[in-house]
Amino acid sequence: MNDSLIIEQTQKWIKSVVIDLNFCPFAAKVLLKKSIHYVVVSNADLEASLETLIKEMHYLDSNEEIETTFIVFRKAYADFDEYLDLVDKAEDLLEREGYEGVYQVASFHPDYCFEGAEKDDAANYTNRSVYPMLHLLREESITKALALYKNPELIPEHNIKVAREKGLHYMQMLRVACLNI
């Protein structure tokens, strides 16, 4: 499987899950403007993954027209607990490198399960992606977008409600469809 196919599948997931179900009311604009940078990483260990994250922060520093980066892990981090360790280390790295308040890391994984949730809760699909990935966002852009959105604190509740209304089978099929390109 080549990188362009993985990127195409990721874009399809963003479009058909994140945007079409309105899980992130700000994503459509970024996708339409083509201001998303995608990086596919193969077989990376923790150190290499964090180096990629630093590289992408520097990339965003130098490319203001790019709003966000998705770091997509082709084969690494299939284990959700191992992935959560990566997320913790990534957040620590942002702070250590002086990027706290500049960038934010959002996490998506094929087996994402919210703490305290059942594995088969459809609500988990708000964060279940086609591949393990780290989503690096500009904090300033998030703040501006949230200021224009009425009741942004209700977004997670809305997402959970929509996913549960659609149901587990629908959410599973929607995500699988993103891989069938």
Question: Could you explain the architecture of this structure?
Answer:
The N and C termini lie close together (12 Å). The protein is α+β, with helices and mostly antiparallel strands and 181 residues long. The mean pLDDT is 94. Helices cover 50% and strands 13% of the residues. It has one domain. The protein has a four-stranded mixed sheet, with helices on both faces.
Short description:
The chain is of the alpha+beta class and 181 residues long. The protein contains seven helices and four strands. A four-stranded mixed beta sheet has the order 1-2-4-3, with helices on both faces.
Index terms:
about 15% strand, 7 helices, about 180 residues, four-stranded mixed beta sheet, alpha+beta, 4 strands
Portion in helices: 40-55%
Approximate strand percentage? 5-15%
**The biggest beta sheet, please?**
4 strands, mixed
Number of domains: 1
How do the strands of the widest beta sheet line up side by side?
1-2-4-3
How would you describe the shape?
Answer: globular
Total of DSSP H or I helical runs spanning 4+ residues: 7
Secondary-structure class: alpha+beta
Order of helices and strands: HHEHEHEEHHH
In terms of topology, how is this protein built?
Blueprint lengths: L2 H17 L7 H6 L3 E6 L4 H17 L5 E6 L6 H17 L6 E6 L24 E6 H10 L6 H12 L1 H12 L2
Parallel strand pairs: 1-2
Antiparallel strand pairs: 2-4, 3-4
Helix pairs in contact: 1-7, 3-4
